[in-house]
Amino acid sequence: MNRNGPIALIFHTLFLGFLLAPILIVCVVAFTSQGYLSLPTEGLSLRWFKAIADNPEFVRAFRDSLVLGAISSTLAVGFSIPAALAIARHQFPGREAITALFLSPLMVPHIVLGIAFLRFFTQIGLGGTFAGLVLSHVVIILPFALRLILAASTGMDRSIENAAASLGATSWTTFRRVTLPLILPGVASGWVLAFINSFDEVTMTVFIASPETTTLPVRLFLYIQDNIDPLVAAVSAALIFMTVGAMLVLDRLYGLERLLVGRGQE
Amino acid sequence: MPYLVLDKLTKRFGQWLAVDNLSLTVEKGELISLLGPSGCGKTTTLQMIAGFLDPSGGRVTLDGADLLAKKPNERGLGIVFQSYALFPHMTAAENVAFGLEMRSIPRADRDRMVKDALQLVGLGAFGDRYPRRMSGGQQQRVALARALVIKPSLLLLDEPLSNLDAKMREEMQIELRRIQRTVGTTMILVTHDQAEAMALSDRVVIMNKGKVEQVAAPQDAYDNPASAFVANFLGRTNLLQGTLRQDGGGCRIDVAGTAWPVAAELPAGPGVLTVRPEKVTFVDGAGVPGFVRARVFQGTQWLFEIQTDAGPLTVIRQHDGQILPAENERVTVGWRAEDMRVMAGTAGGA
Amino acid sequence: MTAVDSQNALSMDPAADTAAPPPDKPERRNWAPYLLSLPALALYAVLLVVPLAMTLLLSLNSFGFYTGIQDVWQLGNYTDIVTDDYFHEIFLRTFRIAVLVTLLCAVLGAPEAYVLRRMKSPWRGLCLLVVLGPLLISVVSRTLGWALLFGSTGIINTALMGIGLIATPIEFMYTETGVVIALTHVLVPFMVLSVWASLQRLDPQVENAALSLGAKPFTVLRRVVLPQVVPGILSGSIIVFALAASAFATPAIIGGRRLKVAATLAYDEFLNTLNWPLGAAVAILLLIANVVIIVGCNRLIERRYKQVFE
Fold first, then answer.
1. Is C138 part of the contact surface with chain A (CB cutoff 8 Å)?
2. ω before C122 within 30° of 0 (cis)?
3. Mind telling me which residue stretches traverse the membrane in this protein (chain A) (predicted)?
4. Residues B4-227, CATH architecture
5. pLDDT tens digit string along C146-205?
6. What Å distances lie between residue B333 and B94, B231, B259, B278, CA to CA?
7. Is A202 exposed, middle or buried (0-12, 13-18, 19+ CB in 10 A)?
8. DSSP sequence for A172-228
9. A193-207, A229-243, C190-204, C232-246 — which is least confidently predicted?
């Protein structure tokens, strides 16, 4: 393949600088020793990271975010597997329409979903509850899980399932012993992508979260709206470090490109 | 009493008739091939027998019982898939054991049967390998062992050798024939490779456009093709357009100014003469004149392309020291009357 | 092998079935796919269709400062939005920001994807990780970074004045410029992804073929690569535009309370002014605009480029 010229490389460097600058500044400012926002010119300090522990609402929001992400992505995967198999394995009237419907939350702005869920949950008495958060998150992350599981199911050789049937396996045994193990990489990456989307969601969640049950991004957002101080920088930096760690692990396991471009498995 | 009976089996996809009123009987222990080009309906037929496709009409009975009433997993057939369809997450032995597990065979018996089956296909030492780490030929053998170990009432093979290279394919043909002799299972083989069908089968069913063209032993079909399609599909053949006429003694066909006697009684009008390339010889006397357009050396034989007034003609001669014409040389070709077949109609209507 | 002969009827044209003559025996209706999709269908019916329908109904209600939400059916909220200059300004600003962000993302993201593809491993994988990684980091954290760069620390202005590019500081916080820059940062990975995907389908030998025919590298880029990447740029643009037009967190943090866009307007109506019906009307308009743009543009692209990518 051809090499990039000097102009291309300069452009590339500037582009990466543009992408990394705001992320790096957060991480740098978080280490300030001052009581206000500033670059850590007087030496690095962990005082603001220690301050996170003194703000239990951040810790609680973080824990809630993790639990919410785990539950809702597990549910989303549970709904997605049978739906993906239906779409991948069968030709039936309405197949296109059902597929489009399953992917449609991708087309609805999250602000609209936030408003719709706020109205819906207050009417049925789920307003401000954790159950409401879970249900709404399942809806918005299901398309991500479905896409990867669908890709994995479509990519699987159909005759492998036929082989199991010809050897006497029932549909359920075939699913359990053959299909599921073979689409498992797709299912796992679908779960991860769903979890990330749930964990990072802020626009919709800000409408339906309550002070008692809220997520970390919402907590951060509301805090920033009032006042930007080294504490939020420290929380963000901690979040960024964790994301980068998870990202490196994911890249090793599945390949980040495969996860994001949306091809299920080889 | 026939073992497997296909009775007016039909499959329609939309307006397209994939299989058209196919009827066929197979005897117990027989190895029969469904042979034909892509889209002739052979795989569709196989899928209906296996239960992966529902027929639009017709019946299938196996040993007197209605096969269509059963679900695919209740039919007890062994199937070797074109892609082998091995379970990639199981070892060779686990693959072979799967069908036995479904039949709740006790552990000890299962292990012994798996070992025997792998032994039969020559993979006794490969039980712990995963399919990914096996060659195409070895995967093929695992697939065969997996299908045979359940002692199927019928073994269906869907293009089993098409993914192997030429040398491996020949080995597996001999292997398959040996195994079939050993276990005596009734087998239906789907293939588009006429050499494979001829090498393995007791009988071949030549199919075209969803219909059966001929059912016969391989040699019979080759020597006495029932139609121009069969003649052309089973090995190379020359199709020459001529004119049939009745005169005095009997029926004759005129091809490029030469008249050949025809044994059968055919109506006057257009006719097609077929003759195998290896039956055509270069003659000194009467025959069809032409010139050598190209000649190609193929190792054991020479292939000639002769341009005649009745169209191009392929000639195959053994490479055994005889003196053969050079390119662009004018030649006369001929054949024995008993080596040719004549049918009424035109070559295009085959 | 034809579709049917090789495997099954899955790839058959479903339209052909409708024109089929009645089969010899009625084919068994297969309910399995419907049963399998039923749980997800039910979930969507309850948790997507119903809430959206309720929002639509809510947008038809009226609101009084002292009376609260009134159960009447009227189009007052929509006529308010259509006739009031205040709303015009907000929607126009939203549109302007979305267009600028889309253009910037195309101009930056498409060349970056191309540069990435020409890189050698392991650099390529590493750089791809850096480019796509921000997608996994919370929008709030990323926007906070811009707020720090623009405002409090003033790094950008100090740097720009340091290299002599500007004489007086530029105002980024609470301005459209700031929102556009931050949103471009948030959304440009989507453009890179989309163009990257279309570059993957490009046969690398095609470029060499053009070079061997005597084309200069720039000509190859313009005449051979670009036309094949256009669908990727267009579909990336649709994604970026839709997300920019409905973006919330970034405009809310960088734009503040004064510089409103459609999404922050709806948020304020809901959670500050408490005029839910008006907020719902804004949301419904946003949803309709979004769906029309996404579906419409996708149709256009499909029709235009169908032959190229079959």
1. yes
2. yes
3. 7-31, 66-88, 100-121, 127-150, 178-196, 231-250
4. 3-Layer(aba) Sandwich (3.40)
5. 998 887 557 788 788 878 778 788 888 889 999 999 999 999 999 999 999 888 888 878
6. 60, 20, 13, 12
7. buried
8. HHHIIIIIHHHHHHHHHHHHHHHHHHHHH--TTHHHH--SSS--HHHHHHHHHHH--
9. C190-204
> Using CA atoms, how far apart are residues A69 and A197, in angstroms rounded to an integer?
8
Tell me which chain B residues have a C-beta less than 8 angstroms from the C-beta of C10.
none
Q: In whole angstroms, what separates CA B148 from the centre of its chain? A: 22
Query: pLDDT tens digits for A156-195?
Result: 888 999 999 999 999 999 999 999 999 998 899 899 999 9
Of residues B13, B18, B54, nearest to C28 (C-beta):
B54
Tell me which residue in A29, A240, A251 faces C148 most closely, judged by beta carbons: A29
The domain locations on chain C are 85-305
From chain A, pick out residues whose CB is under 8 angstroms from the CB of C51: 113, 116-117, 119-120
Q: Which of B2, B16, B19, B82 is nearest to B54 (CA)?
A: B19
- CB–CB of C267 and A80 under 8 A? no
Query: Do B87 and A164 count as a contact with CB atoms less than 8 A apart?
Result: yes
Q: In the block, which residue shows the tokens 């192997």?
A: B164
Contact A160 B78 (CB under 8 A): no
The structure tokens listed for C215 are 């084309």
Centre a 10 Å sphere on the Cβ of residue C65 and count the other Cβ atoms it contains.
Answer: 8
Query: Sign of the CA dihedral A138, A141, A145, A147?
Result: positive
Q: How far apart are CA C122 and CA C112, in angstroms?
A: 17
**Contact C23/B42, CB-based, under 8 Å?**
no
CB-based contact A160 B87, cutoff 8 Å: yes
Which of B53, B87, B100, B140 to mutate: most A Cβ within 10 Å? B87
Partners for A (CB, 8 Å, 3+ pairs)? B, C
Closest to C7 (Cβ–Cβ): which among A101, A117, A158? A158
Cβ pair C118:A3 closer than 8 A: yes
* Of B208 and C29, the one with more pLDDT: B208
**Fold adopted by C85-305:** MetI-like fold (1.10.3720)
CB C112 within 8 A of CB C232: no
A241 touches chain C (CB under 8 A): no
The answer, yes or no, to whether residue B266 has pLDDT greater than 90, is no
> Would you say residue B288 has pLDDT above 70?
yes
What are the structural domain ranges in chain B?
Answer: 4-227, 236-349
Which domains can be identified in chain A, with CATH numbers? Answer: 55-261 (1.10.3720.10)
Distance CA A200, CA A217 (A): 6
Task: Give which of B54, B75, B81 to mutate to test A binding, by max A Cβ within 10 Å.
Answer: B81
Q: Do A116 and C54 touch (CB under 8 A)?
A: yes
Across the B:C interface, residue pairs with CB atoms under 8 Å apart total: 53
Burial-class residue B10 by CB neighbours within 10 Å (0-12, 13-18, 19+).
Answer: buried
Give the sign of the dihedral formed by CA B112, CA B114, CA B119, CA B124. negative
Q: Does C276 touch chain A (CB under 8 A)?
A: yes
Burial environment of residue B219 by CB neighbours within 10 A (0 to 12, 13 to 18, 19 or more): exposed
Q: Tokens representing C179?
A: 């929102």
Window C:179-198, CB contacts with A under 8 Å: 182, 185, 188-189, 193, 196-197
Question: A166 and B75 in contact by Cβ < 8 A?
Answer: yes
Q: What are phi and psi of B122, to 5 degrees?
A: 75, 30
CATH annotation of B236-349: 2.40.50.140
pLDDT of residue C13: 34
- Inter-chain CB proximity C246 and A112 less than 8 Å: yes
- Could you tell me the two tokens for B292? 């050598």
Is there a contact between C23 and B16 if contact means CB atoms under 8 Å apart?
Answer: no
Question: Which band of pLDDT confidence, cut at 50, 70 and 90, is reported for residue C309?
Answer: low
